[in-house]
Design a protein that fits this description.
Elements: H1 5-28, E1 33-49, E2 52-70, E3 73-79, H2 84-98, H3 132-147, E4 153-172, E5 177-194, E6 201-210, H4 219-232, E7 242-248, H5 250-263, H6 266-270, E8 291-293, E9 316-320, E10 323-324, H7 331-337, E11 351-353, H8 360-367, E12 370-381, E13 387-398, E14 401-414, H9 415-420, E15 422-425, E16 435-436, E17 440-448
Parallel strand pairs: 7-12, 11-16
Antiparallel strand pairs: 1-2, 1-4, 2-3, 4-5, 5-6, 7-17, 8-9, 8-11, 9-10, 12-13, 13-14, 14-17, 15-17
Length: 450
């Protein structure tokens, strides 16, 4: 949102006044409690391919999401129209819906004494005053750097720039109201490569993202890295079926953590639809595994002093010495389990897997002979049994050195065994998302190839 500080303050006051009006209307129409979120922001998206601008989109977004409670009955409604009449209609709609829903003894706001009181500035708001013309030039420069990197880059899927900044308000009838300004900017490029005289082509990409535009990777560097990754994949081979150790690059390693957090999510636990049922205090990883949340990191993508329900976040251990300490829950699933919310309504906050200290090069040496994965394709993961099977591409490694690119492979195992067989976590941490992990080395997996 391109605005000075005075306009930012003005917008925040408008959202606060609007939230007060909505909550009063909810009470007026019969709600015993209510919670809401309001978002308002602006963004610019540009995509170029060659000399053509494929997409130029400026957006100004706003929206209200509301949940009301009539005792243990719940109704929800949303609107992108924040006019007085639309707000009134939306509140009425939520209240009317609640009259038809079944009573649910677990429904309701999170406990009042859990609401966040410290809502300090996490430095998440850095709007980028970039014009459409400037954004187009940046995208074209990025793509040109990729196409000029190597004569084997024969085509492009283009380059893109996106920027968004705005305000998000969370409020409820406990008296909790908080407004958080934030921004996010990204630059990406994808190109296609081919060896002369070879029919086979490969595609790869790279991207950079940050809350601060000046901290995006250099434009030329993003394009050249996309091209380098593409050229590396040329002349890819297949290998025979075998059992092997596998090294997941940081970009794909976070999926392993995602399968674990999905298995210990409160919803999966109370529905009894997980291979890690009733797993608190159970050892599922090696002793060196420490997985924890760090919600108050300045400028990070997963940072926040409260979750979607207004519950205060804190640094929290999830796995210590390989042992599960607690689940990942909002208030609803916590009540189902007879536990207390872990302030995870809406997801985790800078989920961090601590490194065992090795660099990427050291992990390759430790892998010795095996498969280094840079791309996962499709998914067949059974959340009830932990059975795991995914298409993959990457590189074959021998004597700690990358030998050649490989493709059209399927990797398989069971997540319970995979967790136990983690032997190292690299220090090459990818900070471009809400899950922070380096490369993960896992022994004893099956590779289905030729």
């Amino acid at each position: 949102m391109n605005t000075d500080n005075n306009e930012l303050i003005k917008t925040e006051l408008e959202l606060r006044e609007l939230s007060e009006k909505v909550l009063k209307l909810a009470k007026k129409y019969g709600a015993s409690d209510a919670e809401l979120s309001i978002n308002r922001g602006t963004g610019l998206n540009v995509e170029t391919r060659g000399d053509i601008v494929d997409k130029l989109e400026y957006n100004r977004d706003q929206g209200l999401g509301l949940s009301i409670y009539m005792g243990q009955n719940t109704g929800s409604a949303s609107t992108a129209d924040l006019s007085e009449q639309a707000i009134d209609d939306t509140v009425r709609a939520a209240c009317n819906i609640a009259k038809f829903t079944e009573e649910d003894k677990y429904a309701g706001l999170a406990d009042a004494d859990l609401m966040a009181t410290d809502i300090s500035d996490l430095d998440l708001y850095h709007p980028w005053d970039v014009s459409a013309e400037e954004a187009i030039d940046i995208a074209k420069s990025c793509e040109a750097a990729a196409r000029n990197y190597d004569k084997r880059i024969i085509n492009s899927d283009g380059a893109s720039i996106s920027t968004y900044s705005g305000l998000s308000l969370t409020a409820n009838t406990h008296g909790f109201t908080a407004v958080v300004p934030s921004s996010r900017h990204s630059l990406s490029c994808s190109v296609i490569g081919q060896e002369p005289g070879d029919d086979g082509m490969q595609r790869d990409y790279w991207y950079s993202t940050s809350r601060i535009n000046n901290e995006l990777e250099d434009v030329v560097a993003v394009g050249e890295k996309a091209a380098h990754r593409t050229v590396q994949r040329l002349n890819a081979q297949q290998i025979s079926t075998r059992q092997s150790a596998i090294l997941y690059s940081p970009e794909v390693a976070r999926s392993i953590i995602g399968h674990f957090t999905g298995a210990i999510a409160g919803g999966a636990q109370y529905r009894k639809s997980t291979f890690l049922l009733d797993s608190i205090d159970k050892k599922v990883f090696p002793d060196f595994i420490h997985l924890h949340e760090q919600p108050h990191i300045q400028q990070a993508f997963g940072s926040g002093y409260f979750d979607k329900e207004g519950v205060a976040t804190r640094n929290r251990d999830i796995v210590v010495d390989g042992v599960i300490q607690n689940y990942i829950m909002g208030s609803y699933s916590a009540r189902q389990l007879g536990l207390q919310t872990t302030a995870n309504s809406g997801g985790t906050h800078n989920l961090t897997l601590d490194s065992t200290g090795q660099s990427f090069e050291e992990l390759l040496k430790q892998l010795d002979t095996g498969f280094y994965i840079t791309e996962l394709i499709g998914s067949s993961v059974n959340g009830l049994t932990g059975d795991y099977s995914r298409g993959a591409a990457g590189f074959w490694v021998e004597k700690g050195e990358i030998q050649f690119p490989v493709e059209e492979l399927t990797i398989a195992g069971n997540l319970i065994e995979m967790f136990k067989n983690i032997v190292a976590v690299g220090n090459d941490v990818d900070l471009r998302g809400g899950t922070r992990t380096g490369s993960i080395l896992i022994e004893g997996m099956m590779i289905a190839g030729l």
